[in-house]
Amino acid sequence: MKRKKIMIAIAALLIAAAGGIYFYYGFLFKEARNIETEMPDFSITAAKLIEDYNSNPEKANSLYLNKTIELTGQITKETDSVLILEKAVFCLFTQKIKNKVSDHNAVVKGKCIGYDELFQEIKLDQCTIIKPHN
Question: What does 41-102 look like in DSSP terms, one character per residue?
Fold first, then answer.
């Protein structure tokens, strides 16, 4: 009888340990997203994104926040690892931009991280240039 209780306790401990390991690796310790290889949730113009955030920021956040977005728009400013589209969409790249693309239209894919009220910009990170347009 005592041996049966010990076996049940050991089995319960093993099940609890397996559940804990699954929870840790399955939910808490997820790998970082690779935005470059993800399919975009939205393919829109930068002007449309700006319009959505200006008209209703809460609704725009519910649509776009933490989503992969493919934006088409005019590049208005460029630095080593940042493009600004339509003077209001801040696109942060993980690597330096190799080819200068200023004063052109481009298609950029990135993850929307929200609206920055201080700078009045919509922020995207982990961006990549899909294709520059002339």
Answer: SEEEEHHHHHHHHHH-HHHHHHHHTT-EEEEEEEEEEE-SSEEEETTTEEEEESS--SS--T
Structure tokens at 70: 């493919």
**Helix 46-55 and helix 57-64, axial crossing angle in degrees, nearest 10:** 130
Structure confidence by residue, pLDDT tens digits, 111-126: 999 999 898 999 999 9
CB 104 within 8 A of CB 134: yes
Measured between alpha carbons, how far is 76 from 70 in angstroms, rounded to an integer? 17
pLDDT digits (tens, 9 = 90+) for 73-84: 999 998 889 999
Closest CA relative to residue 106, chosen from 77, 78, 71, 68 = 71
Strands 121-133 and 82-85, sheet pairing? unpaired
**Cα torsion through 112, 115, 118, 123, rounded to 10:** 20
Residues 6+ apart with CB under 8 A from 129: 83, 97, 101, 106, 107, 108
Amino acid at site 118: L
Does the pTM exceed 0.90?
Answer: no
